Each structure stands twice: as C-alpha cells, then as structure tokens.
Amino acid sequence: MYPELGQLALIIALLLAVLLSTVPLAGALTGRDSLQAFARPLSAGMFVFTGVSFAVLTHAFMVDDFSVAYVANNSNSMLPWYYKFSAVWGGHEGSLLLWILMLAGWTLAVAMFSRKLPSVMVSQVLSVMGMICVGFFLFIVITSNPFERILPNIPADGSDLNPLLQDIGLILHPPMLYMGYVGFSVAFAFAIAALINGKLDAAWARWSRPWTTVAWSFLTLGIALGSWWAYYELGWGGWWFWDPVENASLLPWLSGTALMHSLAVTEKRGVFKSWTVLLAIVTFSLSLLGAFLVRSGVLTSVHSFAADPERGSFLLALLGITVVSSLVLYAFRAPVVHVRSRYDSLSREIFLLLNNVLLVAATLLVAIGTLYPLVLDYLNMGKLSIGEPFFNATFSPMAVAAGLLLGAGIFSRWKKTDGGWLARKLLWPLAVSVVATTGVMLIYGGFAPWAFAGVFASVWVTVATAWDLWDKSSSRQGRWHGLKRQSRSYYGMVFGHLGLAMVMAGATVVSNYGIERDVRMVPGDSAMVGDYQVVFTGIGDRRGANFTAEYGSFDVFLDGKQVAELHPEKRHYPVDMSVMTEADIDGGLFRDVFIAIGERITDEAWAIRLQYKPLVRWLWLGSLVMAIGGFLAISDKRYRIRVRSEAKVDTGNEAGAAPAEARA
Amino acid sequence: MKRLMLFLPLILAVGVGIFLAAGIGKDPTRLESALIGKPVPEFSLANLREPGQTLDQSLFRGEVALLNVWAEWCPACWDEHEDLMWLANEKGVRIVGLNYKDEKEKAFSFLDRLGDPYQTIIYDPRGSLGFDLGVYGAPETFVIDAEGVVRYRHVGVVNERVWEEILLPVINRVEGKS
C-alpha cells in the first residue's frame, strides 16, 4: 500500500512542477502579480510531495519490504539499519529520487531566501527551476520507477547492498555530490531569467553568487568524500583514478570554480557578463552531462550504473533540450556590446580572466580526455586509450600555472595595478616560497622537477594569501582589531585559497614521495616501508553483522618505538558471495601508514600491501577548508536577510542595482 | 559579427551532442584496434598464478589464442565467464587471460568461484599491456594468430553467438592462412 502512495506523491509532485514551470512564468511575462504569487506555494508543494515519496521509499527499506523491486535488489534483512538507510540511494532509481529531492529542496530554498528579489525575477527563476524538475520527474516516473513491485512472488530476502557501498563514505558521498550538481541549477536558473529579461546586471551577479558558492562547496565536499572513500575502501590506496565518473564530477567543479570567480568580476566591475552567463549555463550542463555519463552506459566505468539505452536516450534528450534551448537563448539575448575596456592590461580583472582561461582549459582537457573515445568511435578512427598518463601530464602543469597566477593575483587591484609595485610586492613572497620549497624537498629527500613545481605553487599561494591578510589586517587599534575588521567573504576567499594550496601540496607530495610495497609475509616477519618497520604478528577470525572476516595483526614501529597496531581485514559477504579488502590505516596529519592483506599464498604466507602516504590527508582536509571558505563567504553580512525591512526591499533593491546598470 | 560569435557555444554543444547520441545503445567501446595486423606489443609482466615467472610476447607464438581482458571489478566479466568456461572445456579453445587493473586476491576469488578457463593469465595491475593494446574497458577479447599477430578485437561480452558468428569465422580464416 505505502509504495503506491509514494508513487502517487511523485506524480503529484510532477504535476506541481508542470504548474510551477508555466504559471509564474506566464505571470512574469504578462505582468500579472496574481499568477506570479503561485511561484512560492508551488515550490513548497513540490518539495513536500517529493519528500513524502522519499520518506515512503526509506520506510520500505527500513521495514524490509522486498515486494518493492528496488528494495529487494539493494537491501537485505541482515543489513544494519544505517546501511538500509543509505541503501535508499545505493542504486539508480533511489539515487535519482535523492537527486530530485535535492532539486526540489534547492527550489524551495530559492523560494524562501529570495524575499528581497523583484517578484518578476523570482517567478522566472522558480519557473526555470520548475522546468528542470519536470524533466527529472518525467525521467523517474517513466523510466526509473523506484516503487515498482515484484508481485506475486515476493522474494524472501533481498540480494544485499553492494559491500563496496556499505560504508560511512557512501552514506555521505552521493548526497553531498548531488547537492553540488543540482545546486548549480540555481545559478543556471538565474542566468536564464536574466537572459529572458535582458537584464544581466550587477544585481543578477550579486544574487547568483551565494547560490553558486554554496553549490560549489557541496560539490567540493562530495568529490573529496568520494576520493577519501576510494582511498580506504577500494583497498588500493589510490585517491584519484581519472575514471570517467570521477571526471564527470570534476568537470562542473572546474567550470563552477571559474563561474564563482567570473561572477565576482561581473558583480564588482560589471564586465565579462556574456562570459559569466555562459559559464553558468555550461556549469549546469556539465552537471547534467555527468548524470548522463554515469547513468546511460555510454562510457564504461568502475562505478557506473547498469547501462540502459532507454534511460540514456531520455537523459540525452533532457540534456539536449536544456543545452540547446539555453544556448539559443544565449546566442540571441546575451549582450554583445563590449564595454570599452575600463581595466588596464595589468589588473585584477585580467588576473581573474586568466584564472578563467586556465580553468576552462582544464575543463576542456578533462572533457576531451573523457569523451575522446566516444568521438573516435563515431568517426571510425580507431582507438587510443586515454588514461592517467594523459591527465597527469596535462592537468598538473595547469594546476601549477593556476597556483602561480593566484599568488600574484591576490595582490592585484581592480582597474589598474602598477607593474613595478606588484613585482616589488611579490619579491618577498617569492624568496620565502623558494626557501620553504627547498626545505620541503630536503625533508622528503629527493628533488624532482614536478615535485618542486607543485610544492612551490602550493607554498606560493599560502605565503601570498597570508601576506595579503597581514597587509590588510594592519590597524592602529592592533592586529586583532584588524583581523576582526575583515569581512567574512574575504575570509572565505582566504580559506578557499589556503584549502587549494593544501590540496596541491598533498597531491604533489603523496604522488612523488609515497611508497608502495607488495610483500610476502608469514606471521613473525617484518618489513620496512619508508622509515616504518611493520611486524606481522598473526592472523585471526571475527564475525560482523553481515560478514565474516579474517584479520591480520600488525605492529608498526618508528625508530624502535611502536606507533600503531593495525588490523586490516578480508571480509566475506555471504549473501552476494563477495570478498572485500578492508585496509587499515594509521592516519596522521603528515603521513598515513596503510596496510591491506591480499591473498593467502601458502598456509602460512600472505601477500601484504604496505604503503607510506605522506600528506595524503591534506587532500581531503584541504577540500574541507575550501568548502568552509565557501560557507564563510555566503554567511557574509551582505547576504543575510533583514526580515524586518522586508516589505520595502523589493523596490529598494532595484534602486540599489540601478547605478551599476547605468555604469554598464 | 559579434552576435555570430555567441552562436559558437551552441554549435559546439550540438556537435558534442551528436557524438553522445551516437554512443547510446552502442556497445560502449566497440572500437577497432589500431593494432590489427600488427604483432602483440612487447611486454614483460608476471604470471598471475606463478608470481616468480615473467611472461612476454613470445607467449603467443605457436598456436592461435584468444586474449581475454578481464577483471574482478568488471560486472560484464562475470557474465561472460560461463561462456569462456564453455569455450575452454567444450571447444578446447586456448584462452590467455589478461587480468587488467585488478587486485591479485580479488582475481583469485573470482576464479575460485567461477572456474578458470585460462591457459595462462598475465597479471597487469597497472594496465600497462592493456594501455598498449588500446584497452578502454573490460571485457575485451583479441584473436591472436600463431605468429603472435593481432587479428581481431572484440569489445564486450563473449557469448555463444559472438563465438559462432564472429570469433570462430575469424579463427578459421586465420588458421586457413597460417
């Protein structure tokens, strides 16, 4: 009974989405307030019914309702409750429902936090969100109904959640990732509304910014969680595989990063408008492309969903309609009047433009590397494998270049920066960075050109950011007062850049100075990995909730002192007859010691994988710092809603935007 | 003029869309190998079953063989395995396995469960031979003649139909020639 209610709720939500995509827009185009007023209630209703549907599916998982095909395929009565909960989004249908729930959630959020916007704009933005919702509701209702029943032969038990996915990383990774993907729909909706109105002004950029930043922060967290999960759960110790699905998440991240920076220029200086609006369209399109790549089966990947041509065609149609209609709109409506250059060839505008060029180039690079096989296939031109070597060789130089540019760009001023002044300004950070980078090289023992470049870029960004903070916070009333005086959005930027520096440092150091050893060990043996001595003390058995495991015991020594005792496992999941390697890791801020047990070679001997991973945590900590930066930026005073003055703000805001328009 | 520039993204997007559309429904990687008619690339990799032993391209001399690229992580490999068992046991086909970007213990548990149709298995954890062969995903199956020359590449699952309609004719042709 319940599952049918869930489906009904989904269909009602679809109908509400259809109304949302038409009624307020009609109201906005004809200037009828009464129709525009429907936007907010319809958004709320759509969210509520999607929520009901999601709750029903969750309930089906919790009570082990195996008459629902999706539950039977992705759960099992032996599964602990928290994995039953996360199994809701463990497969295609449920994760799509989560995606839609978030889309409805973002729509509701726009409805709630847009009180200061002109009603016409709100109606248009919400209508565009509604259109996107219609697309995805149709997709789930037509091709991927999560409530489909297996009747009358209800299976006695489910076929279990893929053991790879039974992990805290999976509970969190998809929701974060989807929040990011879907969140870019808001910036997209604002861009489309602005194009319809023909008002690409500072107000538009100002309102798009916090939404973009939030979505970007979630996406950053999502990608980092995925990488962290792959690192400890796949048991290989790798943190990025350039897998098509990973690339699919990196693409909107890169263009979203470009968008954030470009929006800043558009808001502050009123330039790059056409470019910014194009980036907003591209970023969301890339999110959709990611969904398409993962769910259509056009590319093979370790973690793509089952291929289904019908779903693929539907998604491609959705992607096609979105992209083509928005780009047609763009082509006809984007402003072509180029503002006569109101900035010098050396200015903050130029630095941010270069930042955008690099990020877009990196986006293209990843896109090409991911889609190339498809293109070649189409042209019948044979085949070339693109894998890690291609990405590592091309992506790293861009990352370093972006870092170097960033360090210099921090000191630049809007409109015009004096070249000599900037060079003098950079002298000290340069000296400090060279010394610090050399120091890092000495500590890790061994100079390598790319290691130097990567570490240097990272140190350079850090030093420049800190230097700038120091400059800005000087105050007659003392340093503390100076620090307090800085805005939250400034601190957001500082965190964002420091986080990036951490990620770059982590990636460079672990790639260049990490050690991997595959050794054969019998209990009592010891082996060295880096400076660490690992002693294999024995093997034991234990039982988990839905698996049995063999675990090894290892003592880890550094300079004769024990630093850790590790118990990597090999787990056997009886229900779906699979074996999982559960690595054990002694984590630390500066290094991880990673042990995984492999196959039993003889009765006594085991294949053991030992790894020393310096600074690997910085990858994820850095991402966290970046995301914190994003959240700090949007908590800035200027975005906080002043509820009391609400009544008047609609007109007030337009007046506030007027000077910016006049300037343009 | 400038207005025309704004159409550029649209044109690009439509172009990409055509490629994507072409990709749907097709087997993801039914791609001709640039290697057809050329010898198997040089390699030097461990034997999965006997880690001490190193294998190289001379493995393919003397007898026609299927080179099957597989991995435990690849769901389609599970599907086709039964058919490979059938080929090896019923048809007496010589199948060389290329364990591609896999982990040893996973590979072994896979074989323990489903059986082992391979005469020899090349262990390629980093995918280096796979890279040289232009492998994009697993499974892929190559027909290699007695001189060690690649004759055919099949991307995707091997089953009875693929064997009867595609691989067997190729093998017959190759054996007729050599």
TrEMBL record, chain A:
Primary site of residence: membrane
Membrane topology: Multi-pass membrane protein
Domain Cytochrome c-type biogenesis protein CcmF C-terminal: 316-637
GO molecular function: heme binding; heme transmembrane transporter activity
Key words, A-Z: Cell inner membrane, Cell membrane, Cytochrome c-type biogenesis, Membrane, Transmembrane, Transmembrane helix
Location within or outside the cell: Cell inner membrane
Keyword Cell inner membrane (UniProt): yes
Sequence similarity: Belongs to the CcmF/CycK/Ccl1/NrfE/CcsA family.
Protein name: Cytochrome c-type biogenesis protein CcmF
Upper taxonomic lineage: Bacteria, Pseudomonadati, Pseudomonadota, Gammaproteobacteria, Pseudomonadales
TrEMBL record, chain B:
PANTHER family: THIOL:DISULFIDE INTERCHANGE PROTEIN DSBE
Molecular-function GO term, any one: disulfide oxidoreductase activity
Location of this chain's protein in the cell: Cell inner membrane
Alphabetically ordered keywords of this record: Cytochrome c-type biogenesis, Disulfide bond, Redox-active center
A Gene Ontology cellular-component term: outer membrane-bounded periplasmic space
InterPro entries on file: Periplasmic_diS_OxRdtase_DsbE, Redoxin, Thioredoxin-like_sf, Thioredoxin_CS, Thioredoxin_domain, Thioredoxin_ResA/DsbE_sf
Pfam families according to UniProt: Redoxin (PF08534)
Membrane topology of this protein: Single-pass membrane protein
Ranges for domain Thioredoxin: 34-176
Official protein name in the record: Cytochrome c biogenesis protein CcmG, thiol:disulfide interchange protein DsbE
GO annotation terms (biological process): cytochrome complex assembly
Keyword Disulfide bond: yes
Family under the similarity heading: Belongs to the thioredoxin family. DsbE subfamily.
